[in-house]
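User: quick one, sequence for these tokens?
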């Protein structure tokens, strides 16, 4: 949809609205954890429906701008576009959520990974994606001329030294007032991917600041596990008080997961 067909909100309003939407998405994830919804024995499709119903009843949510994703175990290797089989969560599983709720016409895109059980490799994987997320955001703040391709190459390059592979051909996309700016004839131009020379701070056709989501997807193809996280790149989540939740450990006997500890801005627990 062309942005010329609607009034442009002031930049400060756009930033505040996007931060508020992300804060609500984070609060939704906190509710999911707090209610013990991520638990062994549940199908991914069941968890998806439960989160959707919670979003409707608790937050009045009526619209998502992209499909709702819950992936566990080997399905965490898959990207957004890959069709997974419906899978039942296990007691020692790894699970990621990727939801794109729309709050009062403003899009959020929020993703986190959770660990059931005490597997140290899975817990390290979750910690490493959060560290990479922070590293990508730090690079964006430090480099005024940073391009989409340069950011992708940087965050993808953080995977292998940590013992993982980067699991996706992209590492982010635009976000905004629903529906956000698109380029149907050249979809790759508005995504964070290798070789894209578009500067992240280049304004849109109306001279407005673009806002981006940063996505991190690390995988271990040998073990068949992956971890995913995403949040606003261009606005700092610390400004919203957003909790940097990354992992939830279940009890060894498969009971409901307990609430996560808070994660500070550096991604450390």
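Assistant:
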């Amino acid at each position: 949809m062309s942005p010329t067909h609607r009034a442009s909100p002031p930049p400060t309003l756009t930033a505040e609205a996007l931060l508020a939407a992300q804060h609500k998405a984070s609060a939704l994830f906190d509710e999911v954890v707090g209610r013990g919804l991520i638990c062994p024995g549940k199908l991914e499709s069941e968890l998806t429906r439960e989160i959707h119903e919670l979003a409707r009843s608790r937050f009045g949510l009526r619209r998502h701008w992209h499909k709702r994703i819950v992936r566990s175990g080997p399905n965490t290797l898959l990207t957004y576009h890959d069709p997974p089989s419906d899978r039942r969560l296990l007691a020692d599983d790894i699970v990621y959520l990727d939801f794109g709720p729309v709050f009062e016409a403003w899009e959020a895109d929020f993703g986190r990974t959770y660990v059931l059980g005490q597997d140290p490799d899975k817990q390290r994987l979750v910690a490493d994606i959060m560290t990479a997320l922070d590293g990508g955001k730090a690079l964006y703040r430090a480099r005024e001329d940073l391009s989409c391709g340069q950011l992708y190459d940087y965050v993808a390059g953080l995977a292998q030294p940590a013992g993982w592979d980067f699991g996706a051909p992209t590492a982010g996309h635009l976000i905004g007032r629903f529906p956000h700016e698109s380029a149907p004839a050249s979809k790759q131009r508005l995504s964070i991917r290798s070789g894209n020379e578009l500067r992240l701070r280049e304004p849109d056709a109306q001279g407005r600041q673009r806002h981006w989501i940063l996505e991190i997807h690390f995988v271990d193809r040998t073990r068949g596990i992956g971890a995913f996280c995403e949040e606003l790149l261009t606005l700092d989540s610390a400004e919203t008080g957003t909790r940097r939740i990354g992992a939830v450990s279940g009890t060894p006997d498969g009971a409901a997961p307990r609430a996560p500890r808070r994660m500070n801005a550096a991604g450390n627990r």
